[in-house]
Design brief:
about 325 residues, alpha/beta, 4-stranded parallel β-sheet, two-stranded antiparallel ribbon, 10 strands, about 45% helix, globular
Length: about 325
């Protein structure tokens, strides 16, 4: 096993536990007594990956995230310190295609265990909206087919509990292989997480089965997998890029669609500007609410972890869609 031994003081462990880093909390008593811990050091790209690593790694993993709470993950740039952090880690857990800077940094490191969540399930194309393609027709043939597919695939797999469970199973197997001394615990933790995700899937399925409308408006196209899983239609103001601005034609199209499909609410997010969503809602006389893409947990989040925020998302969707 290539897990490095690290010296972590009792004070550091206590502080980590207070910050909610469950990966360190359970062994605090042993650490206080000996001054040493033997951890499987995992660097995760952003919150959904860090959450998986913490849940599966449990007592044996020391998990750090490259994306700070409140930081928009799409825009992340890797610092020199973070590159060094990656080099020293036992494993990197990331989602290829979401954060180009992370993809590049991981590819350049000599880290032995590189876990790409995108390779643990099937990615699809949910990001295209009419305004995404304006002016692109003349350039489409110039692009290679592989490149076009790469940019079209939707990375937001964690918002579908079923796909997130598939990723969890793959991460669990990778942890077992990389740190075989604790394989039994990783297997057990993975099974427990998958069971909770299956339960969440059941809640969404039953909670969204009978609704007055199946169409919902979002700030950017993050909820394609969730919509597909539960028979809904996501209409995004922007495409997969949360910072892209919609065309006037796209806004007018959404206003018309709101009337036709009985849409009541425009959803916005916590980590990106809500200006466009609120302008559309005002002009179309619609309500606004938060539908959290769970790219990070902050003080504004409606919950302290993945499951709590997903429960809040379900409640918001049920209200907006007129669930019976």
């Amino acid at each position: 096993m290539n897990v490095r031994r690290r010296l972590i003081s009792a004070t550091a462990v206590t502080a980590a536990a207070a910050l909610g880093l469950g990966a360190l909390s359970a062994c605090s008593s042993d650490s206080a007594a000996t001054g040493n811990t033997d951890k499987f050091d995992v660097v995760a790209s952003f919150y959904p990956m860090a959450f998986l690593a913490e849940q599966i790694g449990g007592d044996h993993a020391n998990v750090t995230s490259l994306t700070e709470p409140g930081q928009e993950p799409h825009d992340l740039e890797i610092s020199t310190k973070q590159r060094a952090q990656l080099e020293e880690a036992d494993a990197a857990l990331f989602l290829k295609g979401l954060q180009p800077a992370v993809d590049e940094a991981v590819s350049q490191t000599g880290i032995k265990t590189k876990i790409d969540a995108a390779g643990l399930t099937t990615l699809e194309d949910h990001g295209s909206t009419e305004h995404d393609h304006e002016g692109e027709e003349g350039h489409a043939e110039e692009k290679g087919h592989a490149e076009e597919e790469e940019h079209a695939r939707d990375p937001h797999i964690w918002l579908d509990p079923v796909k997130y469970a598939e990723v969890a199973e793959g991460v669990g197997k990778a942890f077992e292989k990389a740190d075989p001394d604790h394989a039994a615990d990783y297997k057990k933790n993975t099974a427990a997480l998958v069971e909770k995700l299956n339960g969440l899937d059941g809640e969404f399925e039953s909670g969204l089965k009978n609704t007055k409308t199946k169409v919902f408006f979002t700030n950017h196209a993050a909820f394609g997998y969730l919509a597909e899983r539960y028979g809904l239609t996501q209409e995004a103001i922007s495409g997969l890029d949360p910072e892209s601005e919609p065309s006037a034609a796209r806004v007018k199209e959404l206003q018309q669609e709101a009337k036709a499909d009985g849409v009541t609410t425009v959803f916005y997010e916590t980590l990106v500007s809500d200006k466009t969503a609120k302008t559309l809602a005002r002009d179309a006389k619609l309500k606004t609410d938060v539908l959290d893409p769970l790219e990070g947990i902050t003080d504004k989040s409606r919950g302290d972890d993945y499951f709590q925020v997903m429960e809040a998302n379900l409640k918001a969707l049920r209200a907006a869609l007129g669930a019976k």
